[in-house]
Amino acid sequence: MLALAAVPEAQYHRLRRAAAARFLLVHARTWDDTLGAIRSRPVEVAVVDPLLTGVASATEIERLRRLFPSLPLILYTTLSPKTAAVLLALGQTGIRDMVLYRYDDHPARLCEVLVHEEARSASRQLLEQVAGVLAPLPSELRWVLEEVLRAPAELQTVQQVAARARVDRRTFERWFARLGLPSPRHFLAAARVLYAHRLLQDPGFTIEDVAQRLGYAQTKTLQLHARAYLGLTAGEMRLTLEPAQALERVAQGFVPVRQARASAS
What we know:
Elements: E1 2-6, H1 9-19, E2 24-27, H2 31-40, E3 43-48, H3 59-67, E4 73-77, H4 81-91, E5 97-100, H5 107-118, H6 122-134, H7 139-150, H8 158-165, H9 169-178, H10 184-200, H11 207-213, H12 219-230, H13 234-240, H14 243-252, H15 257-264
Parallel strand pairs: 1-2, 1-3, 3-4, 4-5
Helix pairs in contact: 1-5, 6-7, 7-8, 10-12, 10-13, 10-14
């Protein structure tokens, strides 16, 4: 899982020590770097300090909230007279967690806050929605598919997923057939479309950003998959579908064959 740290150097090193076992941490030293990382990499949660540039300001963090409302943000800063008013303003934006540097930033506390906020990420919400489909699979295969949903750019083909789960491709496909599901190839493509749809609900992402972040070699491939699984272009699905509606459309093609036959009878 990838976490972004838009904090000064000292806080970054504390975060890295605390989160190494659970998160891969990327350090952003400027607000421009922060925006670039969010748009191009599968960031699950961001830790931000209003003192990143040395001057206490809520402006850039408020901008992040407007552009990427689905991205969980954690404040990690120093409590001082110059930050008090900024923290009060940021409290009105819906940020739930704050950690104070050298006060309550014990490694266990930092890790706990990161894990808590990561549970609200777009990929985790998607995982919860498809958990029922994945539940009957062997644990090794299920874990790898969950990894795909968290970072779909890393494992894009059936062969890559099967290799990571240490099973051959045919075994992978047999498990899906046994459950009456479409092929793993369709599952992987549909999952990426659902993830793309969730990201496109945030105004800060362009269609090109999302295609790059999800590992599409060309934006037109995302467009083709959007039409195949949702019946809409990426722009249309952004404007007309809620996440639950997108999942429902995709799920119609993933109803197990046995269940469909039972319903028909």
